[in-house]
Design a protein that fits this description.
This protein is α/β, with parallel strands linked by helices and 317 residues long. The protein is built from 13 helices and 13 strands. The chain has two domains: 232 residues, Aldolase class I (TIM Barrel); 55 residues, no CATH class. Helices cover 41% and strands 16% of the residues. The strands form three sheets. It has an eight-stranded parallel beta sheet. The protein has a three-stranded antiparallel beta sheet with strand order 7-11-10. It has a two-stranded parallel ribbon with strand order 12-13. α6 links the parallel β5 and β6. Bound molecules: flavin mononucleotide. Flavin mononucleotide binds next to β3, β9 and α9.
Length: 317
């Protein structure tokens, strides 16, 4: 399945040249971004969260017109139409999916019948062991610094990845805080065999997010994010007027306050730099330019070997 020559198990699962996954982003990672990542040798996917079956079919048809390489979908398993969306993916020839937000056990029978591999996103060892027991093929270890929904456990990528590597029998991909070859090399040094990136790909030419989101992200430093809905379903977003106002509240209250405060909404549904909720990782502080997806992936693949040499040279006296 894989055209990767070094037997990386994640390339084997994805069928890709490089073990780099486009982090699913609702209403953002659609056909154009998915195809661009797959054409650059990574694994592009459609964020199916909130989609109807016919919308997903249309998006996959568009993606297939833009690339012949493998593409996947991501589906948060708590969504009531999860199985219906996976049926569409199977029908459209998808061979690997990522799942998040819930117990993946509910999708495994259907996935196996359809010959689909499953990679589940987790934020703790307990969740990872549950996913492994359910039969998933790999897990994505998402650290607390990541953009979007993060774990209630607050474990960072640097601690989560080796903990999972040491305790699981399936491959681990790292997510959270990775934007360049240094981050990928660090993840591999911790034992990960693949990476998923979200925030880096927001600042790409192919990203359909409004320009103000990319401008805020490029200007941001590593302290520019905060957590909303701290106890219930924490989400890491860029600080702005509306998120500063509702931060510290529980998610139910926060949602209410946002609505009362003047219609703050997810960045793809409206608003501006002051009122839109812009999910974003701490690694925004490491990004200052919008680049093409091909450039982002090429810089990573070209940078890895040099970093390995530099580490060896600089460590030993
Ligand atoms: C704007 C945005 C939207 C996101 N939406 C989703 C989503 O719909 N489903 C999901 O599983 N993860 C979502 N995430 C998380 C990403 O898929 C990915 O795991 C995360 O961005 C990795 O951390 P990083 O941002 O530090 O690269 C989102 C992240 C961002 C920045």
């Amino acid at each position: 399945m894989s055209d990767c020559s070094n037997n990386n198990p994640v390339c084997g699962i994805l069928g890709t040249q490089y073990p780099i996954v486009l982090g699913a982003m609702r209403l953002i990672t659609l056909a154009e971004m998915a195809a661009a990542v797959s054409n650059a040798g990574g694994f592009g996917l459609i964020a199916a969260s909130g989609m109807e079956a016919r919308e997903l079919r249309k998006e996959l048809e568009k993606t297939k017109a833009l690339t012949k390489k493998p593409v996947g979908i991501n589906i948060p398993v708590y969504r009531p139409n999860t199985l219906e969306l996976i049926e569409v993916a199977i029908e459209m020839g998808v061979k690997t999916i990522t799942t998040s937000a819930g117990n993946p056990a509910k999708v495994m029978d259907l996935a196996r019948q359809g010959g689909v591999k499953v990679i589940h996103k987790v934020s703790s060892l307990k969740m990872a062991q549950k996913a492994q027991d359910a039969g998933v093929d790999a897990v994505i270890a998402m650290g607390f610094e990541a953009g979007g929904h993060v774990g209630r456990e607050h474990v960072t990528t640097f601690c989560l990845v080796p903990q999972l590597v040491d305790n699981l029998d399936i491959p681990v991909l790292a997510a959270g805080g990775i934007v360049d070859a240094r981050g990928v090399a660090a993840a591999f040094a911790l034992g990960a065999r693949g990476v998923e990136m979200g925030t880096r790909f927001v600042a790409s030419n192919e990203c359909p997010a409004p320009a103000f989101f990319q401008e805020c992200l490029n200007k941001a430093d590593c302290e520019a994010t905060l957590l909303l809905g701290k106890e219930a379903m924490p989400i890491r977003v860029l600080k702005n007027a509306v998120t500063a106002m509702v931060s510290g509240m529980e998610s139910g209250e926060a949602d209410q306050a946002m609505v009362q405060s003047g219609d703050a909404s997810y960045v793809m549904s409206g608003g501006d730099e002051h009122t839109a909720v812009m999910p974003c990782g701490q690694a925004a502080g490491l990004i200052d330019t919008v680049k093409s997806i091909d450039e982002i992936i090429s810089e990573i693949t070209e940078g890895i070997r040099q970093i390995a040499r530099d580490v060896e040279k600089s460590f030993f006296c």
